[in-house]
Write a structure and sequence with these properties.
By secondary structure, the chain is an all-beta fold. Helices cover 1% and strands 56% of the residues. The chain has one helix at 6-9; strands spanning 13-17, 27-31, 34-38, 46-51, 57-62, 66-69, 72-75, 78-79, 85-89, 92-96, 105-110, 113-122, 130-139, 154-166, 169-179, 191-202, 207-216, 226-236, 241-250, 258-267. The longest helix is centred in the N-terminal third of the chain and has 4 residues, at 6-9.
């Protein structure tokens, strides 16, 4: 089964061992440009476009209240004690009321480079599930001053568990934890995440359809966690290529209202 949570949706460079996953296929290289849009509980919409082609590029259009962390657009606004919206981006701090109109701006530039690795600890057999461990490291190549990233390195770990239920149907549960780099002028939470879903193989395992729900802890204390419903369809070829299309629907104010990704990867 193939599913695509943000671990692959927003990947800049995906290169990891597939030791227990496929005979003769030890590595995978992939990329997945993506677009997301939402209000994140504010009065202003923010659009994020990410193109992870070796040298990643990011474009954000909004009021500066959303930045990209580990490939995910997350809100960094919070209400102060007076009920106003406090926005901090890079080295600039400002306070505005909810009724004040803010002209959206567009910032584009180099995005963060994220390298992820996955190691299969156990392959499914008898009643045992497939278990894989994963790690990721973010190089802070995106501009903090322009609101394209935090300007700090992040590191994270996670575990993936999947089990075939019969007739090509598979259940999966993933979870992980990311240590967010310190920003002296603005405290950011370390984040946890999880996703739960089902996938179905079709057309002699050439096509896979998956649906799952995922949640990420809010970057800023007091804001709502991001929860999304994600659906993905992938098609694989005999040569090792896989093409995947996915869409997401926000289930909370902390998540984008909607998102779209078109990705491709190849095992070798």
């Amino acid at each position: 089964m193939s599913k695509t949570p943000h671990a692959l949706l927003w990947v800049t460079l995906l290169l990891f061992p597939l030791t227990a996953y496929a005979q003769g296929e030890q590595w995978q290289l992939g990329t997945a440009p993506s677009f997301s849009s939402g209000r994140y509980g504010t009065d202003t919409r923010t659009d994020v476009f990410y193109t992870p082609f070796v040298i990643p590029m990011t474009c954000i259009r909004g009021n500066g209240g959303v930045i990209v962390v580990n490939g995910m657009p997350v809100r960094q606004e919070r209400l102060d004690v007076s009920g106003q919206t406090e926005t901090r981006t890079g080295t600039t701090d400002s306070t505005r009321t909810g009724a004040t109109a803010v002209t959206p701006t567009t910032a584009c530039g180099l995005g963060d480079i994220i390298v992820r690795g996955r190691y299969y600890v156990l392959d499914e057999r008898a009643w045992y599930p497939t278990i894989a461990l994963r790690v990721h490291v973010k190089a802070p190549t995106a501009s903090e001053e322009r609101g394209l990233g935090t300007g700090r390195p992040d590191e994270g770990v996670g575990v993936e568990v999947s089990r075939t239920l019969g007739r090509g149907l598979m259940a999966m549960i993933d979870a992980g934890y990311t240590v967010i780099g310190d920003r002296p002028e603005f405290d950011l939470n370390n984040t946890w995440w999880y996703d739960v879903g089902l996938g179905q193989n079709l057309a002699k395992d050439v096509v896979n359809v998956s649906v799952f729900v995922e949640e990420y802890r809010a970057l800023v204390e007091g804001l709502e966690n991001a929860r999304e419903l994600v659906a993905a369809v992938s098609v694989k070829s005999a040569s090792g290529w896989r093409v995947q299309v996915s869409g997401s629907l926000g289930l909370s104010d902390g998540a984008p209202d909607r998102g779209f990704t078109l990705g491709a990867s190849r095992r070798f």
